[in-house]
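Appendix B, Record 12. Input sequence as logged:
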Amino acid sequence: MKRLSLLLSLLLLTTLGCSNSSQTGPGGGTSTGGGDNAAAGPKVAYVTNGIASFWVIAEKGAQDAGAEVGANVVVRMPPNGVEDQKRMCQDLLAQGIDGIAISPIDPDNQGDLLDEIAQHTNLITHDSDAPHSARKCYIGMDNYSAGRMCGQLVKEAMPDGGSVMIFVGRLGQANAKLRRQGVIDELLDRSEDSSRYDDPNAGEIKGEKYTILDTRTDGFDFGKAKAQAQDAIAKYPDLGCMVGLFAYNPPLMLEAVREADKVGRIRIVAFDEDEATLQGITDGAIYGTTVQNPYQYGYKSVEILTALAKGDESVIPEGGFINIPARNIKSDNVADFWAELKRLTATEKAGSPATEESNAATSEASATEATEAETDAAVKSESATE
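Logged structural output:
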């Protein structure tokens, strides 16, 4: 009976886990791939900080690089935060992975995990850095500078000043902190200082022309993200501009603004290149977006990890920072940018239903396989105890 009870419990956890992951949004959780020679090449992993359309684009870059350099590429997208990310990384280490590129969710409190990875394989960071870890390099942009670029878009969208709300998934990530601070410092015309940090719990931040009313976090919960936007619209009738710092925030903000019939009255400024964001710019409902280059994040990560696995340390630049600059996209350049993005992700449109269905199925299968293995191990262990 004990064995049967254990088996049923684990199977229930499998069902619940798969159900949760399939509802988290675009981009699934797990994929593998590579070129014709990949089986003989190193196995490297690309680990994100969540699930979003942004990561679908990065995944395509990682897989294209794997095909180019002959690497086996594993992509992991944790749906439920730090513990998921830790579990995925430790599972990869147990498999004998040849390198991990990770976007740390909470670098200040993930030191033990990052040290563990670095002790057993090649570690690099992407998108969000952990500069105090033993990572070999960081691939991404200067998030503080990008935040100031986003602040410039707010100034253009609302030149006479006004009130601003900031929305973001979580502030534990270095990239989120730096982007937010960059936006604030730009709006308040402060000098550049990436070490400055305005406490998000300290109330309104007032400048001569702009007032930052609040910063709302949602923990990558898409329903909560939209609810936060709706609440802000209701609470602040004179709200002038909403700024979304993660890829999924602006489309959800736009939904809330449209439902409130305030398109044009509330300006929207975005981060990243979600299709709904780009369509919003095309339609004139979103003023502009500060974009990264997630395709290159994925591509360069796999390229560098593969070289490191083969013993080539020359790919690590002095200073350990591979800068992939941000740029601002507005109505005058959105068409060209979007066409290039579609060319890079030609196999499947980023965030398309086909991609979402495929990734969700892969994630569910992987979760089931992992839990079945855990079940077998637990039953064997219980038998030995009995």
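The domain at 25-141+294-326+334-364 is CATH 3.40.50.2300 (Rossmann fold).
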